[in-house]
């Protein structure tokens, strides 16, 4: 399954993401953005939210007075994003392929969306695109699940998350292939349609990276002052290998 197919597989899950993961992620990640990034930016800074999903974070940043653009490759995700953040700008595009002029004081990606990059080369492509889109001295802040997180699933599929509502129900099962460093996420969805339950199944593929791989890719495209933080925005220790925020800065005259 290609990365593009994986991304488009967000479309059937967009409603559930909008009501479950989108608000949950925004609530968790907003304080970290405040702690690490926002105080470094001008009051009316331009920010690109890469892999913006259903736009909850875009709206929070707009309420703070920033000029915000969301980019995602799922049309259905952006359908909800435009409802959640009607004053935002949105772009339907692949993170590996987008080309924007140096416009943004910061680029953020805070829903581990970049784990969908299936190779080191794809990850570097995203970083290069971000670097070009940043103004000089601009910042890039994003999060990733790391190898330790995926290893905790084991090689057998395990139930990790789900939800039940009046009109739909879903369950998520995850596993990990340590040889390929790929974690398939299988999601089963039941929708109530005209009184009947209809089932659909989708699969996302996530790639595991180490902190050293990510830092190397950032530095290879020109980012400086690369720092790694834990989920609370504190500098990550040597044994922190499940999840991390990464932040780098574009050089002046770089």
* CATH topology-level fold name of the largest domain: Rossmann fold
What count of domains describes the coordinates?
Answer: 2
CATH architecture of the largest domain: 3-Layer(aba) Sandwich
Which class of the largest domain in CATH terms? Alpha Beta
Largest sheet: 7 strands, mixed
Principal-axis shape:
globular
Number of strands: 11
Strand arrangement across the biggest beta sheet: 3-2-1-4-5-11-10
The averaged pLDDT comes out at 93
Low confidence ranges: 1-6
Number of helices: 7
CATH H-level superfamily of the largest domain: Vaccinia Virus protein VP39
End-to-end Cα distance: 36 Å
Order of helices and strands: HHEHEHEEHEHEEEEHEE
Main attributes?
254 residues; alpha/beta; Rossmann fold; N-terminal domain of TfIIb; 2 domains; seven-stranded mixed sheet; four-stranded antiparallel sheet; 7 helices; 11 strands; 33% strand; disordered N terminus
